[in-house]
Each structure stands twice: as structure tokens, then as C-alpha cells.
Amino acid sequence: MGDRNAPGAVQVITEPDYEAMIIGAHPDDDDFGAGATSALWAKQGKKVVWVVMTNGVEGGEAPDMDDEEFMLTREQEQRAAAEVYGVKAVEFLRFPDGHLTNNEETRKAIVRLIRKYRPRVVLTHDPSTFLMAPDPNEEPEATGHINHPDHRATGSIVLDAIFPYVGNPRSYRDLIAQGYMPYRVHELYLFYTERSNTYVDVTETIDIKAQGLKCHVTQFGPDVDFSSSLRERAAKTAKEAKEKLNLDMQFAEAFRRVKLHIPPTPADEAPTEVAE
Ligand SMILES: [Zn+2]
Q1: Which one Pfam family would you cite for this protein (predicted)?
Q2: Structural domain boundaries enclosing 107
Q3: Residue 274 confidence (pLDDT)
């Protein structure tokens, strides 16, 4: 940490503007990862922004489909879904789907957006999840899958952006010159994780998640109905919340929560009395 009284020192902002920024690799990842939580927070009047890292053009089965047209269609679907959840803003970064890497350009794009919206909480993919695979001894009929490399790349880009860059007045000074000031993110919530420690009660909004996902017609067709599968999965997550933390919920979304900055309370700031 540098000297905040140094000549020309810039104060790092700790006061958030938005409550949450959800950052997913593809259109529909923000929905699956934190759709019901987003809808709940939006219902509570909190400002939520979604970010989509890639253009989504590899999420289809027809090789001849025009990329530009497909990208725009998926963005339109994502905007429609965001509206269902009550999300205030959506940002599309349009990096190449299927080929996302943690590099200078992708990190800088995220630094800019976090400094722009100043979310209290950032939600993104857990970059340490390589496999999502049940133990065949416990669930012999279930198949596992390999976590998409774009999901892992997104998680690692976002974590690197948050630390060390977003809050560092000497990082990305060209962004600072444009008004994107250094900012300290308070908390991180990771989804698609196998190390959940936080459960959000989404009983009120689980059906909104099903409605939002219906907007992604290019992915699931016009007649998809996720309501029972989502309820089933969220009930399983709620059961895990009961087992792990003794929480009573009907439907839940799970995250690995990390606290990065705890704002001082007024009591902390009050002058300390010196014992005589
Ligand atoms: Zn994805």
C-alpha cells in the first residue's frame, strides 16, 4: 500500500454506487449463475448491472449462421432477460466466444467497468472450477462435465482486475485520466463453484429466473420451461444450506463469498478515549 499523503496522491474510493455487478462469460451465464439473486436485489430497490464477456457466437449448432446477426440476436435476448429480472444496465464486451483469455485487453475492460459502476459486490465464475462432476460412486447415473474455459477465464480476469488493478491509483492511469477512479470492491461472490459458503433465499424470485431464461430462444427454443428443473435444483441447494449452515429456505442460490473490504462503522471512526 502506498503513501496516501504523497504529493499528487489520489484517494481510493470506497463508497459504492451499484449494489452488484454480475460478470458472466456468455449471454445466459448471468441468468444461470445469479438470475434469482439479481431479481431479488432488484426487487429490494438495489441497482444491479450485468456484464457479458463474449459475443456468444459459438453458442449454436448452425455453422453457416452470420456471426454479427447471431451476436446481436443474443444480445437482444440478454437485454430482454435483464429487463425481466429488473437489472438496470447490461454491458457487452464482445470478446470472441470460445477463445476468451486473461490478457491486457480483457483485464483492462473489466477494470474500466468496475471503476465506472463501483459495485459493492462483484459476482462471477469461480475460476478454480475445472470440473462439475458428481462422484460416480454416489450418483452412478449422472454425467459430469468440464467447465467451459471461457468461464474459468472470466473468473480469473475478474479476480485479477479487482486485485491488484481496480483499486490501485498507479494502475491504468489512462483510465484515471478519463475519470475512472480507483475503487475498492467490498465483496466477491463466486458462482458455478464447488465451495459454496453463502446461500441466498430466492424463494420469492425463482420463477422470475425461469421467465428470464425463456428469453434465450437461440439457446433453448421458443417453448422451453425451466420452472420445474430450476425449482428442483434450487431446492437441492436449499437442502445443502440446511445441512451446512442450518438455514431454512425453500429455494436458494449458492455462492462462495469472499470479503475484501469492510467499511469502518461510525464507532470505529469515533475518537478513541485515552485512558489516563
Ligand atoms: Zn457459459
Answers
A1: PIG-L
A2: 20-136+145-264
A3: 59
* Residue 275 domain-assigned (yes or no): no
198 within some domain: yes
Question: In the structure, what pLDDT confidence band is assigned to residue 67 with cuts at 50, 70 and 90?
Answer: very high
- Which residues are 52's β-sheet partners? 24, 92
Q: Is residue 72 part of a domain?
A: yes
CA of 28 to the centre of ligand 1 (A): 7
Q: Which residues surround ligand 1, an ion (CB under 5 A)?
A: 25-26, 29
Residue 171 vs residue 62, higher pLDDT: 171
Q: Which letter, b or e, does each residue of 94-122 get, where b requires 16 or more Cβ atoms within 10 Å of its Cβ?
A: ebebeebebeeebbbbbbbbbbbbbbbbb
Task: Compute, in angstroms, the gap from residue 108 CA to the centroid of ligand 1.
Answer: 21
Answer for the pair 196, 217: CB distance below 8 angstroms, yes or no: no
pLDDT digits (tens, 9 = 90+) for 186-229: 999 999 999 999 999 999 999 999 999 999 999 999 999 999 99
For residue 190, the domain's CATH number is 3.40.50.10320
Q: Report if residue 271 sits inside a domain.
A: no
